[in-house]
Structures are given as structure tokens and as C-alpha cells.
Give the backbone structure.
Amino acid sequence: MASHTDHSTHIVPVSTYIFVFLALIVGTVVTWQVALIDLGRFNVIVALTIAVSKATLVILFFMHVKYSPRLTKLVVISGVFWLIILLSVTETDLLTRTWMGVPGR
Amino acid sequence: MDSHGTTVLRHHFENEEQQKEASSLGMWVFLLTEIMFFGGMFMAYLAYRQLYPDSFAAASSKLDVTLGAMNTVVLICSSLTMAMAVHSAALGKQKMIVFYLVATLFLGSVFLGIKTKEYHDKFVHHEVPGADFHPEDWPKNVDMSHASLYFGLYFGLTGLHASHMIIGAGMLLFLIVKAHRGAYTAEWHTPVEMFGLYWHFVDIVWIFLFPLLYLIDPHFGK
Amino acid sequence: MLTATKPPEKSTNYLTDGYGLKSWLLTSDHKRIAILYLISITFFFFIGGIFAAMIRLELATPDGGLLESDVYNKMFTMHGIVMIFFFLIPSIPATLGNFLIPPMIGAKDLAFPKINLLSWYIYVVGGIFTLYVLITGGVDTGWTFYTPFSTSYSNTKVMAAAVGIFIAGFSSILTGLNFIVTIHRMRAPGLSWFRLPLFVWANYATAMIQILGTPVVAVTILLVAMERGLHIGIFDPALGGDPVLFQHLFWFYSHPAVYIMILPSMGVISEIISTFSRRKPFGYTFIAFSSVAIAVFGFLVWGHHLFVSSQSVYAGMVFSVLSYIVAIPSAIKVFNWTATLYKGSVTLSTPMLYAIGFIGLFTIGGLTGLFLASLGMDVHLTDTYFVVAHFHYVMVGGAIMGYLSGLHFWWPKMTGKMYPVLWSKVAAVMVFLGFNLTFFPQFILGYLGMPRRYHVYPPEFQVYNVLSSAGATVLGLGYLIPFIYLMWSLKYGKDAGPNPWGATGLEWQIPSPPPTANFDVTPVVTVEAYEYHAQEVVEVG
């Protein structure tokens, strides 16, 4: 049986929500504007870094994960981890197919 | 209105705390399945973007970045109003719950409205994969045959996202009616919280879709 | 000591608590839902069995006179789809798991009883789509739906079949969700994780796979439907698509799916072996962790189904090593079960016969999996009958024997009746012998080079095929006999008490059949799991 304090009574102050909201808006504008500059392959890295940061803010504060039981945090991390398994292990095939030439050619 | 709250303790639970914890874990496990559900399509997107970067860039430049950015802001606002709805419920401010839920529904509808416009534009410009697919003003040196891959995944990803929004809108209507009747109190407002988790998740999906679909290379071909 | 429940007066149990179709179709009682599932999956098992019979009839002669090749393609496709998605995957979790997990953890029901019922309805709708496919001509792509044949060329009911499986997948997801929440949040006071029965651990690990894997195959099916309808090119090489990407997405789920099929059986075996050796399972903690390890590692090996598909050889090597590693936790279980038997007080009850058969057959199936995990050997063995024999050893010799073991063990608990013991043992032996006769020759056939999914073969292979078809007849009879005596026992069987086997576990402390609420008072657990006393001798049957 879970024996932690009742987390559902934790009230996040409105100021926290406003800060997160503003950060999300700024992140969106930055993503948009940086996309208009040609950074080559860094464009996608910058865009995804900002996206991950935004998602983290939403998860921690809007979804209250920062104030949630350990099990909730474990579920979130598992989701990210399993998604990474799907993407990265498939990529080991997609990225290395051309490494070995066809014998005889 | 019942000031003591109207928690319905289901008979198989020992106490309200257990019921609340079960609901919360249940919603999070459901969101876990949603991560993997969208994840499969993200994998397909990843595979073909790396295989056909030029086709993807050219096709992506057909999207209206302004509308996409507006939609992103709309959804972020709706996440704020949803968080405020849960906040109001936790403080027992019943009228504010209704207000914020209605605001969330309004913003969600704006999103869907803009999406409808975008889909309509695609249809008019023959950018919908199928029999009538022939995008216009295609750059000469880019293979158009892979454009349908991009657009197929565009419709697949945003369509999947939009269908989640539509279901969310339906649930919001239900919650608004219940909230209006005073069903949610400071002691018990689990459905509002649980729905909030769902709504934020759908927002997060869009946070990734926006740069991946709209911002591949906004200057391509210009 | 466990807090005892009040001995029942002539009280109702879950079977007598409300009569009529409505009380069953609108139930929220996990036990009734388990019975609903039991009826449905048994129905689909026999449908899948009919397709198997057609296959073995066709293969009894080398010229394949009975069926045209395109009809034969439909036979093995439908056999696979029905057996995997509508029998094996739901089998133990939705029947035994649904029935037993709440009592095993001291709970009155699962966390979400209505979602439990919904999962059954979803399963039924998926099943109806599949029956529709059956009636309107079938599907011929193989249960694996490889593209571009399934997306661009097959003229059979691919969409309907895909929809049926898509829907059935949600049933599986909801079952898994329910189990995870229930096991985390509804254990009785004192019931820590390491006091749980290993059956619960096994179903928990299974639920992890159902949650994390099924959504991926669901979205893959969606993409297949989009491809078939709109020709976006996602899996069609002519339009720039990659058929191997389909295989990645498909097997990302479908390999872990085989662990969905075997893990619950392993959980059953742990219960049976310990009960009928009168011993705590040897290495309880190892068995528990190995279940979770199988669930986790099972997600890292799917590329071994793509060894010859033009997947990168480097990726193949990584998948090969991981496939060897995933065998380790399974082997740990086999060692621990064997060690449990050693110096135990062994009773050869019917469930025990199935369980001992399981250990042998699963070991053979698992070892032959290692042959297939080797890149070099797989080039020769893949798509031959060696693979067919391998997976039937683990899925039938393993998973189904485990299911039958559990069904025979918990039948008295679920129905309050005992079945005729002699017939049950005869059937168990028939299943074991029939199974080996059916599938062992297939290892030889595969080694000799007979391809799978072919309905004609060189005449020199006939003797093995005839042995296999003969074995299938014995096996089929072996499955029919329990169906008959279990049905018979419902009306004429001897009344079973709460604990006919003298087993430990909370489910044996409540009446047989249990009352709807399972417990009057939530038990408080103060003892470790499997507190057996080896000196006790149990009268069986």
C-alpha cells in the first residue's frame, strides 16, 4: 500500500503556471524565428531541444509530475525510454545499411 | 449544491485515497500507451525524413508556418486554461471551473478551425495523397514522387492528433455540464484532473509536430 | 495467520448472484468477465483448430490435392491470426488473470471493473470482424501482413482483418492497464511485492508488454490501411517506401507479443510446481525478476525476425547477441522450477502432468530458438519448418500446456466442481504425445529444407508430414476430451471445497466458487508466500 502524503492536495501557485506559460510562448517564438535562419543540420537540433524543454515544463508543472508520487515519474520515464528504444534501435538498421557493400560488386 | 462534495467511493476500493491513486495511475498508464501509439508514426516520419530530406523540405514548405505557429500558441493557451480549471477545482471555485473549461473548449475549437482551413487548402491545392495528388509549383530538381510520403505522414500525424482533440472536445462538453451542476469540489475533482493530463499530453504531441512538420526548411526553394 | 473469512452459510457465490443474460452481459464482476472471456476464447480456439486441421490434411500428401495454393494461403493466415490474436494473447490474462488476480492480492475486484467489461466487448467486436473476414473469403497475407503484398497486391479482405486485429489490440491494452493499476494500488495490507504469488508477477510483466507494445502494432496497422487506401507510398518500394520499415514496426510489437503469450504460462507453472512439490519455488526472487527481465529484454530483440530481410548486417549482429541474452532469464526459470522439484514431495496431479510436460517442451522450444538467433544458422533455417516447429513448441508445448495446467488447477476454484481425474490425466498424456508427434518431425523437415507456408513438397518429405498430420489428430482429440469432461463436471462433478489441492495463496482461503465480493473483510497478510510444509500429503481428486 502506498504510504506517501496525499499529493493531490498540493496546489501549484498561479504564478508558476504563468511563468511556465510565458516560457512556452517564448520557446515557440524562438523555435519559429530560429527556423528562418539557416543553421544547416543544427536547425533540427535546436528545434527539438526547445520542443523537449517545452514538453518537460508541461509535464513537470501543468501535469504536476514534479509533485507526483515516484511511480508517476517512473511511468513518464518509461514512456520516454521505450520510445527511444523504438526510434534508436530501428535507426541502427536504417543508418548502417550502406556500411557493408554487396559481395562481388 | 452539496458542499460536502459528491465523491462516489466505488465498492471495490478500500478508501478514497486508493481510488484517487488508482485513477491517476490508470490515466498515466493510458498516456504511456499514447506515447507509443504516436511514437510508431513518428518512427515512420523519422525514417523517411532522413531518406528523402529534399522531398520533405520541399513538401513542408507548402505548409503555412504562420497558421502552424498560431495553432501552437492557441494550444499552449488552452493548456494554461486547463491547468487553471484544475487549480480552480482544487480551490473549490466552482464558477471558475466552468469558465476555464469553456475557455479550453473555445481554444481547442479555434485550433480545430484553423486545422480545417489548412486541410481545406491542401485539398484545393491537390496535396492530399490519393487519386488527385499533384502538388503545384514543385521545384524542378526535387523528386516529387516522395512528396506523397510527406503529405501522407502529415495527414496521418495531424489527423491522429486532431482526432484526439475532437475526443477531448467531447469530453470537455461533458465536464462543463457536470461542473455547471456543481459535481466538482475541492474534495473531489478527479475527472477534471485526469482529463487535464490527457489534454496536456495532446498539447505535447503538437509541441513536437509543429517544428517537425512545419519548420523543416522554411526557406526551401525561395 | 491470515484473517479468516466467515464460513459461508448457504450464501450466494458469483455464479448464483443474479441470473439471466443481462446480469452476465452487464456484469462488472471480474470473475464473470473471466468466464465470458473463457467462452469466447474457447470458441476461437476451435475455429483456429479447424484451420490447423485443414493445413495438416493438405500436407498429408506431397501434391497438395485438397486445396488450391491461394486457399491454402488463407488457411495458414487465418490459423495464425485467430490463434495468436484471439486465443493465445488473451488466453491466460483475460481468463485466469482476470479471475484470480483480485483474490490473490486480497482485493474485491480489479481497479476498473467497467473497463474490464469494455475490454471483453472490444474483443468480441474484433472477433466479429475476423469472423466476417472468414465468411467473406479470408485473407492470404500470412498473419504477418508483410508489405507490399498486403498493401498493394493482395485481393483479399486485408482491411477487414486489419481492423479486427486493431480493435482486438485495444482489448489487450485495457486488460494490461487494469492489471498494472490493480497490482500497484490494491494489494492487501502486508502484501508486499515479494510476498506476491509468482502468477501475479508474471501477469504484471505481461501487462507491461501489452501497454508498451500493442500501440505500436496498432499504429502500424493504421499505416497499412492508409497505404492500401491512399497509396501514400509508405511501404511500397515503387513509391519510395521501405517494406523493411513495416517489418520493424510490426515486429517491435509482435516479438514482445510472444512473451505476452508465454509469461502468464510461466506464472502458472510456478504455482503448479510449488503446490505439487509442497515447496516454496526455489529462487522466488530470481523468478520474479526474470519475468520483468523477459518483458524488458523482449523489446530489444525484434530484428531477429528480419535477419534475411536486407536489414543491415550490423544491426543483425546486435539483435543476435541480444536474442541470446533474452534466453537467460527464461533459462533461470527452468533451473529454478527443476530445483523446486528436487527433494520436493511430488504429486502427479493433472496440472502437474501438464506443468512437467511444459518444462520439457518449453526447454526444447527455447533451445531451438537459440539456433534461430544465430545469424549464420538462421540464413538456412528461416522460413523453413524448423521455425514452425520452434514456435509451436513454445506456444503450444509451452503456452497452451501452461493454460491447460492452470485451467485444471483453478477449475475447482472457479466452478466449485472437480472433474474426473482419470480422463484428465489421459488427456494430458494424449496432448503431450500428440504434440510431440505433430511437431518434432517438423524440426527434421526444416533442417532438410522444407519451406513453411508451402502446400506442396518433394515426395521424400512425405513420411515426416504424415507423422505430423497423425500427431495432429491425436493432439486434436487430446484437446477435445477436456472440453467434454470439463463441461460434464459443471453438472455432474464432485463438489470441490475451498482448497482441494492444499495450496497456499489467498484465493484458496475463500469458498469455491467465490462470493461476488471475494472477501467479507480485506485480509491482512503476515506470512511470506508459499508457506508449505513438506510433510503434508494431499489427497487429490
